[in-house]
Amino acid sequence: MKKLYTLLLCSFLLQGYSYAQKGFFDKFSLRKSFQSKSSKTEAASFTFNKPKDATGSWAANLALGFQLLDSTTVDLFLFSELHKNTLVNKKQDSRDIGLAFRKDFFPLASLTPFLLANAKYNVDREKGNESFRASLSLSLKAKDLNLGALNFITPNKIVPVGNLFTLEYTPFIGLENENRTKTTNASEKGHIYRWYFQIIPVITLFPNTTIADRFELRADYQYRNDFSKSVQDGSYREHEFFTASFNYNILSSESEQKFQVGLDYVKGENPVENFLSQRYYAISLKVKL
Q1: How far apart are CA 126 and CA 103, in angstroms?
Q2: Could you tell me the CATH number of the domain that includes residue 263?
Q3: Among the listed residues 159, 182, 185, the one whose alpha carbon sits nearest the alpha carbon of residue 170
């Protein structure tokens, strides 16, 4: 793992040498994950709890990326992720390093499909497992498509609902592979292939007022199905994961940058982040750059 982080550092330095100093730091990105499209990904979150006369606990979901390639239709990021949670009974400590890729097809069409792919090396420090993982997913985004009263069914299109709120949602469907190369228990070694579905609806309140973009309701539902695997760890074939957040934007910005305080609800399991089945509530500080 140390060798991989050394390679990551060297890549950053080489990229810095190849670019002019101006704009170099603009290529860094901080968010919750590189699993989905950058504009739809939730901000990195931090939670800390220190009860009286007890050990403090905390949670962090963050991903730091460096943009290697940027165009109107293609993105390529080198990234590292940390998903750690000691607030819950089934603790989580998942770390990744890898590449994330996005490609838009038919950019002049009214409804544009886009492809997301990533490949990464994962370390589950709670279980002592290491694995190589890859994913491939597809979605659609609307450009000039107008369906009138049916606009709300158009993916990745901001639809106003009176003066109360705007609605936008992003669906994904895709494939995932996990190849465990090092495990504590021999029965957990092997491969897993999954197909998955994900939908991310986002509601922004009071869009036509002076507090526009301040209040945000966000949900994320994920369903995964292991259609082929050689591991014998006794895990379930189906995995469901749901999060809901009510966020307040402390700093309003027209860009993708965010600084928020949010109330979060989490239920289910997410094998991509080595999060075991459970549920909890948390108040988090969130940052996206």
Answers
A1: 34
A2: 2.40.160.40
A3: 159
Q: How many CB atoms lie within 10 A of CB 86?
A: 16
Task: Report how far Cα 36 is from the mean position of its chain's Cα atoms.
Answer: 5
Longest dimension (CA), the chain: 61
Number of domains in the chain: 1
Per residue in 15-71, pLDDT (tens digit) is: 444 444 447 778 888 888 887 665 567 788 888 765 555 566 889 999 999 999 888
Domain housing 32: 2-288
Tens of pLDDT, residues 76-96 = 999 999 999 998 889 999 999
Token pair belonging to 289:
């750059």
Q: Which of 156, 174, 178 has the alpha carbon at shortest distance from 166? A: 156
Both tokens assigned to 159: 């639809």
Q: Where are the beta strands (DSSP E) in 143-231?
A: 159-161, 165-182, 190-205, 215-229
CA gap 85, 82 in Å, rounded: 10
User: CA-CA distance, 289 to 285, in Å (whole number)?
Assistant: 14
